[in-house]
Amino acid sequence: MAGVDSRPRRLRRTPGLRSLVRETHLDPSQLVLPMFVVPGEDRREPVATFPGVAHVSSDVAVAEARRASDAGVGGVLLFGLPEHKDAEGSAAWNDAAPVQTTTRAIRQALPEMTIITDVCLCQYTDHGHCGLVEPDGTIANDATLPLLARTAVSHARAGADMVAPSDMMDGRVRAIRAALDTEGFAERVGIMSYSTKFASAFYSPFRDAARSTPQRGDRRSYQMDPANGREALHESLLDAAEGADVLMVKPAGPYLDVIARLAERTTLPIAAYQVSGEHAALRFAAANGALDLRLATLESLLAIRRAGASFVMTYSAVDVAGWLA
Question: What is the rounded distance in angstroms from the CA atom of residue 265 to the CA atom of residue 236?
């Protein structure tokens, strides 16, 4: 066409040119591998609704962490499944629980590995909620805070680099920061807050894996309404003011707008979680020939990074590291 003054296609002509001007990069060091750890030894039990994900004992988790480390993956995020549950979730702060045991084992085997631990009660309570439940079904926010803080301190003692409160109780970052500082972890353990966690339909495979589906009710009274963008920013900025070191948006893919808006409002690193439903959707679609797993996964992660995430939690971390290599 005559008269065209600008031809951006000139810089897309070859792979070398495209690489030279690429704005967003994806590296294995920007990925974190979540794992579900259970008691015992030599256990690897696949989760039926969650392709490629299994419950693993601490010895198997160490091997998985080593594989991730060798691939250049930036860290691991540990979720624990206890043998016994109760109304308080007391196994969460048991020093012999799966997260604490696995943290110590990975720290001994891989001293340089970045270990992040999930801090919540939902996997440990017999009712499946993230906090204590009143007789009328109300989630007791303030009474839950000391239990979350106690759990975080237990993880810190085991060797965690960061604790990651995912409960969405108001004030929990301040409570955890105060407890960590009091116990001597002011300079050693950071807080990666699930600061904007939506009440999402994309968590179902995770709840199967974590065995944390609420026995009654749901989590909409404390997790974020998917319709609210401004409130999402407010939630994250509150956690920043309380002492969070990293802010997280969860899920990632359906909420790229929130990640982008948050990136404009804070200088803190932003994490994003490509959650179980996102992972399963890609895997099941690829298994049925609907898309190319490698290309679709890489594109989804690039979109999350492009929106403003510094790093991403993804169950595909090791696979992605191999593809990038």
Answer: 10
Task: Kindly give, in sequence order, each residue whose CB lies less than 8 Å from that of residue 211, ignoring residues fewer than 6 positions away.
Answer: 81, 123
Weakly modelled stretches of the chain, pLDDT under 70: 1-2, 217
pLDDT for the residue 1: 53
Out of 250, 261, 279, 305, the active site residue is 250
The question of whether 85 is a catalytic residue gets the answer no
Given 55, 107, 177, 197, the catalytic residue: 197
| Rounded CA separation 93/159 (Å) | 14
Position 261 scores a pLDDT of: 98
Active site residue 250: yes
Q: Which amino acid is at 39?
A: P
Name all contacts of 38-43 with Cβ < 8 Å and 24+ positions apart: 38/80, 38/81, 38/98, 39/82, 39/83, 39/98, 39/101
Structure tokens at 76: 């691991």
Is there a contact between 166 and 194 (Cβ–Cβ < 8 Å)?
yes
State whether residue 311 is helix, strand or coil. strand
Within 13 Å, how many C-alpha atoms sit on residue 260's CB side? 9
pTM to 2 decimal places: 0.95
At 220 the pLDDT is 83
| Domain edges within the chain | 25-324
Q: Tell me, what's the pLDDT at 20?
A: 95
Give the pLDDT confidence of 10-34 residue by residue, as tens digits: 999 999 999 999 999 999 999 999 9
Three-class DSSP category at 224: strand
The answer for residues whose C-beta is within 8 angstroms of residue 285's C-beta and 6 or more apart is 291, 296
CATH match of 25-324 with 3.40.50.2300: no
